[in-house]
Design goal:
Pnp Oxidase, Chain A; seven-stranded antiparallel β-sheet; alpha/beta; eight-stranded parallel beta barrel; about 450 residues; about 35% helix; elongated; binds zinc ion
Length: about 450
Amino acid sequence: MAVSAQDFKQALAQFASGVTVVTTLFNGQRLGLTVSSFSSVSLDPPLVSIGVVKKLYTHTAIEQSGIFAVNVLSMHQLDYGLRFAGLKPDLTDRFAGLETTAAQTGSPLLPGVLCWLDCRVWRAYDGGDHTLFVGEVLATDASGADTPLLYHNRLWRRSESLDVPTLSPTVEIVEVGPRDGWQSETVTVPTDTKVRLIDALSESGLRRLQVASFVNPQRVPQMADADDVCRRITRRPGVVYSGLALNLKGVERAVAAGLGQVDVSLSASETHSQKNAGVSVEAALEQLAPMVQLARAHGLAVRAGIQCAFGCADEGAVEARRVVGLARRLLALGVDELALADSTGMANPQQVRRLVQELRPMSAPVPIVLHLHDTRGMGLANLLSALKSGVHHFDSAFGGLGGCPFIPGATGNIATEDTVHMLEAMGVKTGVDGERVAAVSRAMEALLGRALPGKLYRLNA
Ligand code: ZN
């Protein structure tokens, strides 16, 4: 008698694509192995299938005995998964110390599993090097109240229990406060101060600094001294200093300033493009080609950014398809980095994961840089989401400065010292001394006479 469809369904509901141990009893001997090929075949009659490689002795045993049991492991039974996968070479008997039970067929049932299915072989299909055994479920129990152990686990517990690193061991941080931050302030920061603070930042271990924006001083007066700042800062060896350019003239100024990289960008939002750059997205894209060419001809690296990649204050949601299309055209220009900017702080972690996962295979080996604003408090959550999706380059601004003069309500970038703190606490190396950055933030706070959005710089004041 097979189990009822209802009971079978309840057992199947215990897991999605869990790790299972298939066991059998042959000539009085208990045998078992870890398989990932388990699946249900039909509910009524209750049928499941397992794939077993022919050269294994357990294959012979199931073939001969005509019985098997499926044991679905819980997240706390990684040890079973490893021992029945033969990953515990010291163990001669895989069942050593295990109090197994049995139901109808006599196939051993492992203790504490999420559920088990006791099966009689119903059909066997030849799969070349393996056999697909379809079993009729004669008995089942799904009383194990736990979470399954998963192979394709986006949660962290499995990898952590195996001591496999789940995150990149290092992250590169690009300090953008001197550009994104200072250009958003209504008070113009004096050139002397800019030079002093940039020098202090470059002594903190930051290897990437965006120090200026070569824009029309009439439009952004805070950046009128860009060339001066570039000339006067102390260039530390190994540090890449970059500047933003909106047109050919801007690239020429970046070249003249002796920067190592020029950052160009366009917006995914038509409205923002008009407000920010005074041109349509299509026109902006056309302008970029000669800019990239000029920069590269002078040996500068080029980073191309997409602003409002996750949403626009005027237009609302920005379709991922649109961003992907723009990214493809930017990559075709031969840029060295692709930056995605959440200029409006509208991104959420799930959206970040989706877009990054779509873009990464296309952009590789060109790295993706994420530029995150913390407008809605999701900045670091978005960073973590991107990090877990394989992004290793992030923009941040000391003290959480930043904004955009052409986005209503835009607020700061994720704070450099907060970002460094979080990453280092998680064991991800940044090479940056967060406390030194925090000291710069405190100096900035004193200069502006108001608190900055960053958190950490206030702790050790
Ligand atoms: Zn920004």
